[in-house]
Design brief:
Structural class: alpha+beta
Oligomer: single chain
Largest sheet: 3 strands, antiparallel
Strand content: 15-25%
Number of strands: 5
Order of helices and strands: EEEHEHEH
Mean pLDDT: 91
Number of helices: 3
Shape: elongated
Low-confidence stretches: none
Length: about 130
C-alpha cells in the first residue's frame, strides 16, 4: 500500500506533483507492488531526501501512524513515560524512535527474548 517514486502524471489540481519524488498511500491501499500506482492527492507527501526509496516507503505509514497515536491522541510530552507494546514491530519501533526523540522515557514490550533484539536502542539503528 505504501509507495515511493516520481510522479509521472496527476489529475486536476495536483499537477504540481508531476516530476517530484514522493511517498504515498495507494488508492484503497492496493497496488503498491507495481510499476505504476494511483494515489489520492491527500495521501501524497514529499519523500524525505535523506532516505532511499525503500526507507522512505517503510517510513510513511509506520511513522505517521505512530506519530498520530503518540502525539496527536496521546499528547506525549518530553519527560513522560510511555509503554510501547509490540515494540519489535514496524509501528512499535517507529514509536520508540519518535518517543525517544521527543525526550520521553520508553518501556518496550515484546513477545519474547528473540524479539528483544529487534527493538531500537540508542547507538543501534537510526536515532
Amino acid at each position: 500500500m505504501d509507495v515511493c517514486g516520481v510522479v509521472d502524471a496527476a489529475g486536476d489540481g495536483a499537477e504540481d506533483w508531476v516530476g517530484q519524488r514522493v511517498v504515498a498511500i495507494t488508492k484503497v491501499a492496493l497496488g503498491g507492488i507495481a510499476e505504476y500506482a494511483i494515489a489520492p492527492v491527500v495521501s501524497v507527501f514529499t519523500a524525505p531526501p535523506e532516505l532511499d526509496d525503500a526507507e522512505a516507503t517503510a517510513f510513511l505509514l509506520t511513522f505517521h501512524t505512530s506519530y498520530l497515536a503518540l502525539f496527536r491522541r496521546g499528547r506525549l510530552q518530553a519527560g513522560e513515560t510511555v509503554v510501547i507494546h509490540s515494540a519489535a514491530s514496524g509501528l512499535g519501533s517507529a514509536g520508540i524512535q519518535l518517543a525517544r526523540s521527543a525526550g520521553a522515557r520508553v518501556i518496550a514490550v515484546v513477545g519474547g527474548p528473540e524479539k528483544g533484539g529487534a527493538v531500537p536502542r540508542p547507538g543501534r539503528g537510526r536515532w
